[in-house]
Amino acid sequence: MKKTVAFNPLEYPLYVMLKPIGAVCNLNCSYCYYLGKEQLYPNRKNYQMSDELLTKFTEMYIESQPSPDVLFTWHGGETLLRDLSFYKKAIQLQHRFGRGKRIQNALQTNGILLNDDWCRFFKDNDFLIGISIDGPEDIHDHYRKNKGGLGTFRQVMRGIELLQKHGVEFNTMGVIHDYNAKRPLEVYHFLKEIGSKYMQFSPIVERISANQKLLSVNDPDVGQPGSWNVTPKEFGSFYTTIFDEWVFNDVGEYYIQLFDSTLANMVGVPPGACIYAEECGHATALEFNGDLYACDHFVFEEYKLGNIYKSSLIEMMLSPKQLNFGLDKKRLLPAQCKQCPYLKLCNGECPKNRFLETSDGESGLNYLCEGYRDYYHHVTPYMQFMANELANERPPANVMSWVRGK
Fold first, then answer.
1. Structure pTM?
2. In which residue ranges of the chain is pLDDT below 70?
3. Active site residue 296
């Protein structure tokens, strides 16, 4: 029997990713892991989060937080398919229930529906906007198509121009897949050119059953890898290639999530991204009807924690089921991972990707392991230099002078 570690609810931060329109989207990206989540609610015609649910969640979420800082994260599907009045209501409710807490909002969008009204609202209310874009036009349009099968690059760029026009802070979320994995510098240079100071790259790692169903990590069906999956070697090469340019020219000016998390883990501070943390389980996903799931990447029936109409967030997120989900990230690591010199840097990465066997036949090896090992081997000397600079209260950007002088 698993032993559950007790947490004090007054000290345990809660983080929930909101799905105001469920999985509904105006695009039909080939590799999307979330579009199929509509199948969890097969008889529904309306996937809009109601004002009643929004009100209930907002009060409960703010009251559940142990710190004075509260982050609301809006995700899809496509978030802007929920109309502007809904988000205006959200801001009103945050003010109503805020009780002096510092509240921030982050919203992820494909950018297609952005207009002046949206951008003015985001600017006035200090939203951080995440834009999904995979690279230059031919790369972006390869998989990110609309319902009619046409590319969406030019519409996304129009949205980015509107954000810049109104001075809205944004970052970019790009996908690493089989098509762009061999062109890392094209992707990186492009994102710099469009003004993205903060970049996140998400590798496509999916297994698909014979009936085209995405498989969870625990599904006994071995399935087939998605045709768009990035290979582990290409994944590692993508990051090391970008790193070589970044460490020579861009430290302190451009921020890449993996690089930040690697340095954070090296100096022993929280990595900022749950996939590189020692344990997980503090970041859940709330569907449009109030169903709460263990994680955005684990929206499967077996990972449903309950519904906020029946249980509180604290009850569900501090339940034995969710605490064990979080602790399993560390305790189910195979022996090969526990003996790896880079364990403290990756911590096994995301559990959703742990479906391979080790050389000893033990289950639970991360699909991307080989690529991560290549990346960490490559960047460790530079990260150690930056860690030393931080320890001596000097800027990590000094690594650029060190590199150029080598």
1. 0.93
2. 1-12, 209-223, 406
3. yes
